[in-house]
Amino acid sequence: MIKIINSEEFSYFLRVHRNEIIKIWMEKSEVQNVLHRHSLPIIDKNTYLFYQFCDCFISVIEWRSTISECQIKIDFLQLLNNYNVTVADLFTLVFKLKNAIEQVIFENGNLSYALQSEIDSLTLQMAIDLELNFETIINSNQNYKSENSNLLTEYKKAVDLSNIVSKTNPKGIITYVNDKFCEISGYSRDELIGKPHNIIRHPDMPREAFKELWDTIKAKKSWSGVVTNMKKDGGQYIVDTTVIPILDVDGDVVEYIAIRHDITELEQTKQQLRNINKAMKNKVDELYSMTNTLEQKAYKDKLTGINNRENFEDIFALEIATAKQNNIPLSLVIFDVDNFKLVNDTYGHQAGDTILIDLVKLVEDNIKNGDIFARWGGEEFVILTPSTDINGACNLAENLRKLVQLHPFSYVENQMTLSFGIAQLSDDDNKKTLFEKADGALYEAKKNGRNRVEVYKA
Questions:
Q1: Residue 130: what are its φ and ψ, rounded to 5°?
Q2: Rounded CA separation 179/443 (Å)
Q3: How far is CA 282 from the centre of its chain?
Q4: Going from the N-terminus, what domains does the chain have, and what CATH number goes with each?
Q5: What is the Cα–Cα distance from 192 to 173, expressed in whole angstroms?
Q6: Active-site residues: which are they?
Q7: 189-246 pLDDT, tens per residue?
Q8: 420 near 331, Cβ under 8 Å?
Q9: Global pTM?
Q10: Contact 32, 38 (CB under 8 A)
């Protein structure tokens, strides 16, 4: 059964299992593959950063901070950048850390659907933040290298070789494309020069996105965003695009330069992750539904649908502890259907079952919200009445006794009657002694003629 824990318990749980989480995370094959593929050595300094990043991640999951407040993330991302770790591999590290946390939580019986949804949401937010920071670090590193180049032509060559580049005049007519632009779009240079830039526009891209782009660059500001373009053969590719207006000495736009990075694989990976998360959510929903059904069956009486004896005993112990802690009254009512064996022997067990179901419905409709009603066994039932003293319990029992006596039950011609035994919790009572008191009172009710209410007398 899933255990529901509060935020303080959850925070303590994560701190206690921190080393176990890190061990599981670092030993995952996908994480090992990332480290080996980029020859990232697990030396003390690097291990420290992985541990610190895990602590940062856990603090976000604990709701004690946000990823934007985590200072160690920059050092961690810089370490990954130093070994040319890709954005896709960064996502692998992040989501495998999430999986390690969920595995430890699940193995300890604390992973509810609501908690998993919260972890998924927080992880997605962290992944987005980390991606933005990582790309900034990558770009800064590239700029640092370019600034150390002594030749402007070499700088231009580097940009041209490493990016998808195009130029247009102020009206959006293509004046230049590099080889990478031709390679990814499938068009030759001759097919592109002199054509409007919307030759590669994908029909799925909303017009509003391009309106925003043009409004921005016409205002002589740079625009950045993700654009889906269409290849000559009808396929698509996705690029992270920056469009920069180039101004003359008078401040007028003379051309626009667009620099793009192909992120098709990254976006496909994101979509796959979204699909996986969706499939996992559906599976979790299914498992939650199954678990809920099984739990319902586990603590409900099969015939009547009310609490069964096992579940009542769990609740009984909790209510006694609550009553004593808060110094409030608690009473126990036990009742038994008089001469029920005769009903079964005369009319059959099916008739007896129908009568019990009808009886339970009648009782349920006439007890307070908060009263705990359960089938103890056979024709014997219990009602636990929190915040109710012996007088209140007696009034409840007497009302039920009269209602049942007057109620027309199926199959039987004579009146059905109940016998009640009642006891109130005292300071020295526990679950066993309180039940014995109420059960002793029930015995007196039967001995004294049935169809009556008896209170425990010390």
A1: -65, -40
A2: 96
A3: 12
A4: 7-147+268-291 (1.10.490), 152-262 (3.30.450.20), 309-455 (3.30.70.270)
A5: 9
A6: 379
A7: 999 999 998 899 888 888 887 888 889 998 999 998 889 999 999 999 998 899 989 8
A8: no
A9: 0.41
A10: no
